[in-house]
Write a structure and sequence with these properties.
The protein has 396 residues and is an alpha/beta fold. The chain folds into two domains: 274 residues, Zn peptidases (Aminopeptidase); 112 residues, Alpha-Beta Plaits. The chain is built from ten helices and 16 strands. α1 crosses α10, α2 runs antiparallel to α4 and α8 crosses α10.
Length: 396
């Protein structure tokens, strides 16, 4: 279908060479959660190049900048995450990661570049910009438990002036490049972590009857946790319980005294979240006791459910329909079990989180994979989306 070229899209396309340069610089030098020092330096340099004076912090790698500080209209906060993942890149891109075991496999390099592009356009908007725009470059989104949003909020990133709206976006290969996905209300799950330490006796593998055997007990726990999903909650209430790591033992002929299981729980309702934690603790205790073993369950609450404001989402969709064309917007059909600490901003300020299309069949891979490489065209759509939505929210 022909693609409309609204004013922000045209401006973003003219900025594509600069955004591509920013993106490649971020991509070549990825940094993990709470280690984004070089990334911070690059952001500070880019923001100063736009005539802005960014704020940095001791002991926190986030970067804050404000456009239009003297404006009196509604305040819009725009957020991009900064951190990479512990992944060995296999994209073959000329600007691939130069650091073994680290990669922007979740597209945060794109997010930062889109926000810088939007900042460049909004900085030039002059009197059309009615209120301040807060630029939030947030570290540690991938950390998963504390994250970077909480520490950023503690440092007043949505205050002085207080934000009226907050907007964010995330690339996804599930939406075609050039399109933007949206959803009102609950969109992404709450994410909790657990660690289960299963204790047995340990000893020679030839004499397991002298147990208890921590490996067998741990295996029974993994199996038993799936019954939590199938029998401890309403079947129409989305829940995921997954064990992602199992550690125990040193050689094949020794039964270890301890096996450690690490996993995640995803839920959408507060009462379900409480129920699943309670049932996991009870079920693990009973399973290991039936085999003569013991267990300690450590359970940590992570990111809350991401809930988009229906009113703000409707307004943003209307704005983007005029800028991008209604045919380039897609309502997401269902919630997803992934999690995002953008949810913490939405607990404080009404806003919405969008999905930025990066789908190119056979080329871009999947999120968190070593081959994930969103096309540069996503930069145009992402920057135009943030700029258009900001101006539209301030104007209404």
């Amino acid at each position: 279908m022909p693609r409309p070229m609204g004013p922000w899209t045209r401006a973003a396309r003219s900025l594509l060479p600069q955004m591509r340069s920013w993106r490649q610089a971020f991509h070549e030098e990825p940094e993990l959660a709470n280690e984004e020092f070089r990334t911070r330096e690059k952001l500070v340099t880019a923001l100063r190049g736009l005539g802005l004076e960014p704020t940095v912090y001791d002991g926190f790698t986030g970067v804050l900048a404000t456009i239009g500080t003297a404006r009196s209209g509604r305040v819009v906060a725009l957020r991009a995450d900064m951190d990479a993942l512990p992944v060995d890149e296999r994209t073959g891109a000329p600007y691939a990661s130069r650091t073994s075991g680290k990669m922007h496999a979740c597209g945060h390099d794109v997010h930062m570049s889109c926000l810088l592009g939007a900042a460049a356009m909004l900085s030039r908007a002059g009197p059309k910009l009615r209120g301040p725009v807060r630029l939030l470059f947030q570290p540690a989104e991938e950390e998963g438990e504390t994250g970077g949003a909480g520490p950023f909020l503690e440092r007043g990133c949505l205050e002085a002036p207080k934000a009226d709206f907050v907007l964010g976006q995330h690339v996804t290969p599930d939406v075609p490049t050039g399109m933007v996905g949206w959803r009102k209300g609950p969109m992404m799950a709450a994410a909790d972590r657990f660690r289960i330490r299963v204790r047995g006796r340990g000893g020679h593998a030839a004499y397991p009857h002298r147990g208890p055997d921590s490996v067998l007990a741990a295996a029974e726990v993994v199996q038993g946790l799936q019954a939590v999903v199938s029998r401890a909650r309403d079947p129409v209430d989305p829940v995921v319980v997954s064990v992602g790591m199992i550690h125990g033992g040193t050689v094949p002929n020794i039964l270890p005294p301890e096996v450690v299981l690490d996993g995640t729980v995803r839920t959408f309702r507060p009462e379900t979240r409480d129920t699943i934690e309670r049932v996991i603790r009870k079920r693990v205790r009973h399973i290991v006791a039936s085999l003569g073993a013991t267990a300690k369950v450590e359970y940590h609450r992570g990111y809350p459910v991401l809930v988009n404001s229906p009113a703000v989402t409707e307004r943003v969709v209307g704005i983007l329909g005029e800028e991008l064309g209604e045919d380039w917007l897609v309502e997401l059909p269902s919630v997803v079990m992934g999690a995002e600490d953008f949810s913490r901003y939405l607990e404080r300020v009404p806003g919405t989180f969008l999905k930025l299309g990066a789908g190119t069949p056979g080329l871009s891979g999947s999120l968190h994979s070593p081959t994930f490489l969103p096309p540069d065209e996503s930069l145009v759509t992402g920057a135009a989306t943030l700029a258009a939505a900001t101006m539209g929210l301030q104007a209404r």
